[in-house]
Specification:
16 helices; 335 residues; 55% helix; 1% strand; two-stranded antiparallel ribbon; mainly alpha; ADP-ribosylglycohydrolase fold
């Protein structure tokens, strides 16, 4: 376990650059959203209306202590660990995923729990020698959110790649390690492109509008356009919460994240809205937390939640590694 903390988190973080702030906020925000959702995963929306999540709780669905993060954060860290400074090393990422599933690496407490069937099957295939990029399920029933939940670091990794097709190829390949169907790959593509635009503009709404404009022209296949119609058209903005699903289906998850980001105005409200949708609370909470962290910044994240994150030094060091690998000329040493 890594022990060195790279930045004094009991001190203000105003001294770091905007890009550093976004990296740190994305990873911490992601882990917090994950941990908030773990105790209530699979709890219904109606139950959460009666007893909503308001703070960091423990035990519940997976009987884990408060602040425990799940496979969402672990596989996000595994992706960061596998990224190379000169390119995306799929074999290295795949190896890190095997280390997680079989040896408990990159976990909050050395234990692996709550693994999706498609993800487990793909990693088992990789361990048995299958080519990583061909390991992910390609059937229509293989469109869980298991690749979407770990794809966020690619926004930082690909932010300086100007070729749209090259970015898409990397995103598709990383998704295909576990989820190789076009719907899963397109969902990952949308999320990463949206966050890259947010990094450039620092305006999440303009970034969303820009990516929708591009994707409506780019994705002409009827099947894709139909599945993503509420996202590409912007209809998602105007839907009531009753029309938002929070299942493990990748499109439902992406829609829920977008809805929560644009129907709240703070990090705290965004992640609580996500978790209280019920259903796949850890994944919807994690992705929403990562996006909201980027949008609102590190100082927006409640410190009482951050302090409760189990083994949070692992998260801090993953943020340090992501920054150093992905931020080019800004790679000065984090303190």
């Amino acid at each position: 376990m890594e022990k060195k903390v790279f930045v004094p988190f009991d001190a203000p973080i105003s001294f770091v650059s905007l890009k550093k702030d976004k990296v740190v906020a994305a990873l911490i925000g992601f882990a917090i959203g994950d941990a908030l959702g773990v105790p209530v995963e699979f709890v219904s929306r109606d139950e959460l209306k009666t007893n909503p999540v308001k703070t960091m709780n423990g035990f519940g669905t997976h009987n884990q202590p408060a602040g425990t993060w799940s496979d969402d954060t672990s596989l996000t860290i595994a992706l960061i660990k596998g990224l190379g400074e000169n390119g995306c090393d799929l074999d290295s990422i795949a190896d890190k995923m095997v280390d997680w599933l079989y040896y408990g690496r990159y976990t909050a407490n050395g234990k692996v729990f709550d693994v999706g069937n498609t993800t487990r099957k793909a990693i088992k295939a990789i361990k048995k020698g299958k080519t990583p990029v061909r390991a992910g399920g390609k059937g229509k029933f293989d469109n869980g959110n298991g690749s979407l939940m770990r794809i966020l670091p690619l926004a930082f990794f690909l932010q300086n790649e100007n070729d749209f097709e090259k970015r898409k190829a990397v995103i598709y390949n990383v998704s295909s390690l576990t989820h190789g169907h076009i719907i899963s790959k397109a969902a990952c593509h949308f999320l990463v492109e949206w966050l890259i635009e947010e990094l450039k503009s620092c305006n999440v709404a303009l970034a969303y509008e820009s990516v929708c404009s591009i994707f409506k022209r780019y994705y002409k296949e009827k099947g894709i356009r139909e599945k993503f119609s509420r996202i590409f058209s912007g209809e998602i903005f105007y839907l009531p919460i009753s029309k938002i699903k929070s299942t493990g289906y990748v499109v439902d998850t992406l829609e829920a994240v977008i809805w929560c980001i644009f129907h709240t105005d703070s990090y705290k409200d965004a992640v609580l809205s996500a978790v209280n949708l019920g259903g796949d609370t850890d994944t919807v909470g994690a992705i929403t937390g990562g996006v909201a962290g980027m949008v609102y910044g590190y100082n927006s994240i409640p410190k009482e939640w951050e302090c409760q994150i189990v083994n949070r030094n692992i998260i801090y060091n993953a943020a340090k590694e992501l920054y150093e690998k992905c931020c080019g000329n800004e790679r000065d040493t984090l303190q």
